[in-house]
Amino acid sequence: MSPRKRIYEVIEKSDGKDALSSIYDYAMIIIIVLSLLPLAFKQDVPFFRITDVITVTVFIIDYCLRWMTADYKIDNRSVKSFIRYPFTPMAIVDLLSILPSLTVLSQGFKVLRVLRMIRAMRVVRVFKVMRYSKSIEIIGNVLKKSKDSLIAVCMLAGGYILISALIIFNVEPDSFNTFFDAIYWATVSLTTVGYGDIYPVSTMGRIITMISSVFGIAVVALPAGIITAGYMTELEKRNKEI
Questions:
Q1: Are 73 and 12 in contact (CB under 8 A)?
Q2: DSSP H stretches of helix in the chain
Q3: Is the model more confident about 200 or about 78?
Q4: Gap between the Cα atoms of 144 and 139, Å rounded
Q5: Quick one: 107 and 201 in the same domain?
């Protein structure tokens, strides 16, 4: 086995049989979590700067290794795979998670200091966990297979919000300054959250709100049921394969 082939097997998501690959996956999850810690604090302390340098260095190495072994993952050893890899979804996520920290590693490049304004882009690193988590991979497969049903539910929810907003906006024009306020109210009622910052005051408006909330429970429950059923089916399929 060539060194590049072995590197590819280690850095790809573990199937539980390769101990080194499993260790790599768990280590990367820890690194990702550590890289997000500074976002939870307003203070810029030396520990966070050191942590950021270490984690982004690991991300850069991981990115380079994946690019170096892209031919094993894309196009079956084709040279085109090295050109295609930077434009794949996960490669873009990897790059976006690296860019905001380049000012720490390269203080001499003034152009890169502009990236300090997009510090929040580091939250993209959360999506890197998708590569190392089997559960998230299963959910991703469920969403792909159930996309038609989920799209239909989303269209139903969107239509219901629009209709509710139109009704309440005409029933209580004094309570809603703009149609967007009515859409906001309809969305909050659909999800049964009810913040209370915008609410109807007339009897008819309150009746509409009650109806909207009751129907909202059913609409919100639909995607949860679809995803749960698909998740169980995917688990049963994987258990049979094992």
A1: yes
A2: 3-11, 19-36, 46-68, 70-73, 80-84, 89-98, 102-105, 134-145, 147-171, 179-190, 203-241
A3: 200
A4: 9
A5: no
Residue 78 falls within a domain, yes or no?
Answer: yes
pTM reported for the whole predicted model: 0.59
Q: Which of 101, 132, 163 is the last residue of a domain?
A: 132
- Helix (H), strand (E) counts: the chain: 11, 0
Q: What is the domain extent for residue 20?
A: 3-132
Give per-residue pLDDT as tens, 185-235.
888 887 767 677 777 888 888 888 888 888 888 887 888 888 888 888 877
Does 121 fall in a domain?
A: yes
Q: What is the largest CA-CA distance in the chain?
A: 76
Token pair of 130, please? Answer: 């998708």
- Which tens digits make up the pLDDT trace of 184-198? 888 888 776 767 777
Contact 47, 56 (CB under 8 A): no
Question: Tokens 């390269």 label which residue?
Answer: 106
Q: How far apart are CA 158 and CA 183, in angstroms?
A: 10
171 vs 215: CA distance, rounded Å: 19
Q: Total domain count for the chain? A: 2
Residue with tokens 């959910």: 139
Q: What is the rounded distance in angstroms from the CA atom of residue 133 to the CA atom of residue 226? A: 21
Residue 138 lies in a domain: no
Rounded CA-CA distance 186/171 in Å is: 13
Contact indicator for 200, 206 with CB cutoff of 8 Å: yes
Please indicate whether residue 37 or residue 196 has the higher confidence score (pLDDT): 37
d(CA 186, CA 195): 11
Domain presence at residue 104: yes
Structural domain ending residue among the three candidates 80, 103, 132: 132
